[in-house]
Write a structure and sequence with these properties.
mainly alpha, RAD50-interacting protein 1, RINT1_Tip20, EXOC6PINT-1/Sec15/Tip20_C_dom2
Length: 349
């Protein structure tokens, strides 16, 4: 293991130039380590007694745990910059080992070892009653504990990565949060709509980081990353840009353009309907860009529902039905009231 991790190509994928083969983007050290485990398995398969086989299984589990600890140590050295190639390679390694062990759990040989360990009363491994029950019911596998620890490390690393990119994006978004949405020219006064200049640093930051990570992480990890980032971005922009400002017609139109024609398409490379990952932003834009007549009707309907005015007539739709008709499913009626109050284009204003 020392030589695996100290090799010059330890953190480089053997198949980095063959995209069809390199789906998991496993670095050389992880590939070599799993090959070693496979060779050990092939050699002890032929041993005559169950007890001897289980001894080697315990050895393999100890090796996996040792390798996980070593990966964790290297990760901590790289954690200041989760975008570094080595940090991403460690994340790929952890994911690769967890994936292979999960596949091995369904292997006939390891299922036989699972049965053997139960028949021997788990003498060679101190299993809890819960673990023994899972093994006996064939719900779990002999590698469950190792897989759980690896998945926890993977989750921790992914969290650090998302938070790092989010922090850099928030920093780049500062000018955008302070945009004068209250006094922007209306859409009819502009020949062509274009991205807000204050949004450019944020969009560039997102584009560059996502491109870099798409190239560095395996497909499943990158998908987990961008979906988690989208969820946090949705909350950030909704709270720090939308709820923190007031909007005239021009400001609402500009926000809608920035989001639907620039932010959403950044994620559109990875899914068909990126707006579904930004539901708060999407629905807020619908409310802010409603024509004045529809906005007035909606405001009155919401007021009636809260008992501010007389009860609504039976022929009038419920607030929920009215919102659904507009494409609002995520935000509550109270949120819509707040958003309507952020508009400045009411008659008489």
């Amino acid at each position: 293991m020392d030589s695996m991790l100290s090799s010059e190509v330890a953190w480089v994928s053997q198949y980095k130039d063959i995209s069809d083969v390199d789906e998991l983007k496993a670095p050389d050290c992880a590939e070599t380590f799993m090959t070693m485990l496979l060779v050990i398995t092939d050699r002890y398969k032929a041993l005559p007694t169950a007890r001897c086989k289980l001894c080697f299984l315990e050895l393999q589990k100890e090796l996996v745990d040792d390798f996980r600890i070593r990966l964790t140590q290297v990760m901590k050295e790289e954690s200041r910059n989760p975008l570094s190639p080595r940090y991403c390679a460690i994340l790929n390694a952890v994911n690769y080992i967890a994936t292979v062990l999960s596949d091995w759990a369904d292997n006939v040989f390891f299922l036989q070892l699972q049965r053997m360990s139960l028949e021997l009363g788990s003498e060679l491994a101190s299993l809890s009653a819960l673990q023994t029950g899972r093994l006996a019911s064939m719900e779990g596998s002999v590698f469950d504990e190792m897989i759980s620890l690896l998945e926890r490390l993977r989750s921790d690393m992914m969290g650090r990565l998302v938070e790092f990119v989010l922090r850099e994006t928030k920093e780049a978004a500062r000018p955008y949060c302070k945009e004068r949405w209250l006094s922007l020219p209306s859409q009819s006064e502009q020949a062509v709509m274009s991205l807000s200049s204050s949004a450019c640093p944020m969009m560039l930051c997102l584009r560059d980081h996502m491109l870099q990570l798409q190239q560095s992480l395996c497909i499943t990890l990158f998908k987990t990353f961008w979906q988690a980032l989208a969820e946090k971005l949705d909350m950030f922009i909704y709270q720090e840009v939308i709820l923190a400002n007031h909007f005239n017609d021009g400001g609402a139109a500009q926000l809608h353009f920035d989001m639907t024609r620039n932010l959403f398409p950044l994620f559109g490379h990875h899914c068909k309907r990126p707006e579904n990952y930004f539901k708060q932003i999407k629905e807020a834009c619908i409310i802010l860009t409603l024509n004045v007549g529809s906005a007035l009707l909606l405001r009155d309907l919401l007021r009636q529902d809260r008992g501010v005015q007389v009860a609504a007539l039976p022929s009038e739709p419920s607030p929920e039905a009215a919102l659904n008709e507009l494409g609002i499913y995520r935000l509550a009626a109270s949120d819509i009231t707040i958003l309507l109050n952020l508009r400045t284009n009411w008659p008489g204003k």
